[in-house]
Amino acid sequence: MQEKHIRWREFLPLIIILFIAAVAMILCDRPLARGDGLAYFIWLDSIAGDGDMDLSNQAQIFAHLNNGQVQWNEKTGKWISLYPYGSALLLAPAYWLGSLMDRIGWFSVNPEYFINHQGRPLPYSLFPMFAINIYALGAIVLAYLCARMYVPALPAAVSALFLFLGTPMLYYSSIEPFFSHVPATFMVSFNDLFDIEMGRKAPIASGYCGRYCGRNGYLNPLANGLADFAVCFSIPAPTSLVRLGSFCYWVMYNRLASILYMEMDVWTISC
Known about the structure:
Elements (H helix, E strand, L loop, with lengths): L1 H27 L7 H15 L5 H6 L9 E3 L4 E3 L5 H19 L6 H8 L3 H27 L4 H13 L3 H4 L8 H21 L1 H14 L4 H14 L6 H30 L1
Antiparallel strand pairs: 1-2
Helix pairs in contact: 1-6, 1-7, 2-4, 4-6, 6-7, 6-9, 6-11, 7-11, 9-10, 9-11, 10-12, 11-12
């Protein structure tokens, strides 16, 4: 009985910060794709709706809203987007659920307004927004687990909460939920947790994993920095300078590689 009580108290800080984050998102949630967020929503509509990456249909559907989100490439004779599409893969199930709700007729609130402002009725953006909320909570949990490897439950929970409230993550998980920031933060946080755990068991394998994810985590370099925040905030004085140097090296290498790879990828697509 006493062991159960201790375990409950250990997870209490995590439960509290998840509750705070959930309430904050509920109060700020806005299920409307706009601005640059519309570009990510267009990718979602193409990948999850049409089942392809051909933006021809989207160029017509969102023509009245297109402000550079979709562009015509004279060299290839195709519609292209300079925005990354990775977040659409994570939001596809939520889009399918929204499509089902729309066909059933549920959540049909002022459809003309939403079609005029985002090209699709409310359910198509409402459920992906809920999915973004879940990914944000998941990123907080992953950041907590990263920090928990080094410090007790309370400071680990505080650092994870700062990841959410001390960065633009709240904004991009509620007011502008269709940017790639939150899904990328979730995935990079998962990589960081995996990388730290591997670093305990196989430092060499951890290094190669860091190099690989640094090159392929180009969805959003900002998200990489946000994911590192919780870990850096919580790590106490290391047991050796080698440990500190190794950690700083992989953080710097991964983030620099992410930025360079993203720039090369955007250059390739635009050409």
